[in-house]
Design goal:
- It catalyses: 5-phospho-beta-D-ribosylamine + L-glutamate + diphosphate = 5-phospho-alpha-D-ribose 1-diphosphate + L-glutamine + H2O.
- This protein is 24% helix and 23% strand.
- With 589 residues, it is α+β, with helices and mostly antiparallel strands.
- It has a 7-stranded antiparallel sheet with strand order 2-15-14-10-9-8-7. The chain has a 7-stranded antiparallel sheet with strand order 5-4-6-3-12-11-13. Strands 1-24-23-22-19 form a 5-stranded mixed sheet, with helices on both faces.
- A hairpin with a 2-residue loop joins strand 17 and strand 18.
- The longest helix is centred in the middle third of the chain and has 15 residues.
- The two termini are 26 Å apart.
């Protein structure tokens, strides 16, 4: 039963052969001029290709319609696996990429830009630089500051470099899975850094292995290198295009060869990728504008969905329209949680978006209160918006520790909510005797939210009212974000009132879905809301859901087959789909 977005304890209550066949006309090459900071709309991108994609729109209830695919997640007793108390109850950031061309300190600038993108991945980092037509690579497991030092950067001379920070949405966090990847083939060497996730990775890998390809990693990015290597297209960038035409899902990638830097974004534009330029003319690509700011590069524009940008010394920057692109489907969670507030993502200020989310909550889910606090750090801007609109003071009621390591030793006498207490400390002087509104960006499994509510009440709060700056999450993401399976998402299993009871707050309200779309205005159709609606722009056929609790330390040892515990197979053909999907008759696929 669909639930009201507000609840309180009172009356407030596919196989590769089925991939689209794109006709590739003679590519248009446009010498790229210096553009103003204002973002051009994707429709302004010069492309004459017409795409008639197969639609996969679903008629849905308030729950995720493809959750039926994932019954394999249950254990022998039919129960969803339990999770460590110390896990963050958030989607995990995907990855961040950087590319720099034409600067004598390219690798050092790349290193700094990766620092700015560290929030997008903390499990591994790498840089590939080009010097004298040789690709040199340094990668490592851990934070950027742990992987690189002065001597490591000295090994990466040259005027061209790409970099990557990762959280393992596909493949485990073994060193061999840390990007950028470098491979040699008959025409030279190529490096790639990828942000996103390919939903047809398994079919592509099977096809390539049947034809003799040998894989060194469990990452979906490696298939891109194999597809480029087997392509017979000319010139080089057409190899990339031919490879990308076989990919389904999300990808924002930067490539480097002996003499070229290439940036490409998938036809739907799921993941962000921007272009900037330094005062010396060096061209910079990055996942977010915050990386451009740190290295003093001026933001020019996004890489358009379906666009390939080629940079070399001979022709400068060329914009090549090669891949047909349907209506953009940019990830709304970039504005809700992933991106830094000081970034401009998809042409919108992240700070302004989050502030508006808070204002909407204050308007549509008001409550009598004495103070507004945030769950730091991602809830702060929305809380400021709520407080400003409600006319209630914002204060720091929770202090976040930024020095908690990945592992810690718990005393033998168990401490309740130990993981949360390590990270968040309540300020009794702010909370005691007060009616408190707590603003957070999202609720995923609800486990952390319940501990935060308990923490605030133990600090003496009279009432605790949770306000969530996103709609309820009912569907997993398959486009480069590591989320639990649909069965583990609390909003896919419970009504808002049931969630309120579970986390123990006095009232609970989510950002209404329709209000979110109204706030986005004319740009609303350009965003992907699959995690809120269960309607997927690219229908998952073979889906990787890395269940939180599987590979908890994210370090995989042993045979490749052992990763299959984190994979769930989608329907391989229509006959199977009819059996698995009870909503098949209502879909357009």
């Amino acid at each position: 039963m669909a639930a009201s977005p507000l609840s309180s304890s009172s009356a407030l209550s596919k196989p590769i052969s089925k991939h689209h066949s794109f006709s590739l006309n003679t590519p248009q090459k446009v010498t790229f001029p210096l553009l103003p900071k204002t973002l051009q709309k994707p429709s302004s991108f010069p492309c004459n290709h017409v795409l008639h994609p197969q639609k996969s729109q679903f008629t849905t209830s308030s729950k995720n319609p493809i959750s039926d695919f994932f019954s394999a997640n249950k254990n022998e007793d039919g129960l969803v696996p339990s999770f460590s108390d110390d896990d963050d109850d958030k989607p995990r950031e995907e990855c961040g990429v950087v590319g720099i061309f034409g600067d004598p300190e390219a690798s050092r600038l790349c290193y700094l830009a990766l620092h700015a993108l560290q929030h997008r991945g903390q499990e591994g980092a790498g840089i590939v630089a080009v010097n004298n037509n040789v690709l040199q690579s340094v990668t490592g497991v851990g934070l950027v500051s742990e992987v690189f030092n002065e001597s490591k950067l000295d090994q990466l001379p040259g005027e061209m470099a790409i970099g990557h920070v990762r959280y393992s949405t596909a493949g485990s966090s073994m060193l061999k899975n840390v990007q950028p990847f470098v491979a040699g083939y008959r025409f030279g060497s190529i490096g790639v850094a990828h942000n996103g996730n390919l939903v047809n990775y398994r079919a592509l890998r099977a096809m390539l292995e049947d034809n003799g390809s040998i894989f060194n990693t469990s990452s979906d990015t490696e298939v891109v290198l194999h597809l480029i290597a087997i392509s017979k297209a000319r010139p080089f960038f057409l190899r990339i295009v031919e490879a990308c035409e076989k990919l389904e899902g999300a990808y924002s990638m930067v490539f480097v060869t002996e003499d070229k830097l290439v940036a490409v974004r998938d036809p739907h534009g799921f993941r962000p990728l921007v272009m900037g330029r330094r005062s010396n003319g060096a061209v910079v690509f990055a996942s977010e504008t915050c990386a451009l700011d740190l290295i003093e590069a001026t933001y020019e524009r996004e890489v358009y969905p379906g666009e390939v940008l080629v940079v070399d010394k001979k022709d400068g920057v060329q914009s090549v329209c090669l891949m047909p692109h349907p209506e953009p489907k940019q990830c709304i969670f970039e504005h809700i949680y992933f991106a830094l507030p000081n970034s401009v993502v998809f042409g919108r200020s992240v700070y302004e978006s989050r502030h508006a989310f808070g204002e909407i909550l204050a308007t549509e889910a008001p409550v009598d209160c004495d103070v507004v606090i945030a769950v730091p750090d991602s809830g702060v801007v929305a809380a400021l918006g709520y407080a400003a609109k409600a006319g209630v003071p914002f204060q720091q009621g929770l202090i976040r520790s930024h020095y908690v390591g990945r592992t810690f030793i718990e005393p033998s006498q168990k401490i309740r909510d130990f993981g949360v207490k390590l990270k968040l400390s309540p300020v009794r002087g702010v909370l005691e005797g007060k009616r408190v509104v707590v603003v957070d960006d999202s609720i995923v499994r609800g486990t952390t939210s319940s501990k935060i509510v308990r923490l605030i009440k133990e600090a003496g709060a009279k009432e605790v009212h949770m306000r969530i700056a996103s709609p309820p999450i009912i569907g997993s993401c398959y486009y480069g974000v590591d989320t639990p399976s649909s069965e583990e998402l609390i909003s896919n299993r419970m009504s808002v009132e049931e969630i309120r009871e579970f986390i123990g707050c006095d009232s609970l309200a989510f950002l209404p879905f329709e209000s979110l779309k109204k706030m986005l205005g004319s740009e609303s159709p350009n965003f992907c809301y699959a995690c809120f609606s269960g309607k997927y722009p690219v229908m998952p056929r073979e889906v990787k859901v890395k269940r939180v609790g599987d590979f908890l330390d994210d370090g995989l040892n042993g045979p490749m087959d052992s990763i299959d515990g984190g994979w769930i197979q989608g329907p391989r053909d229509l006959n199977v789909e009819k059996e698995i999907d009870p909503l098949y008759q209502k879909s357009n696929i």
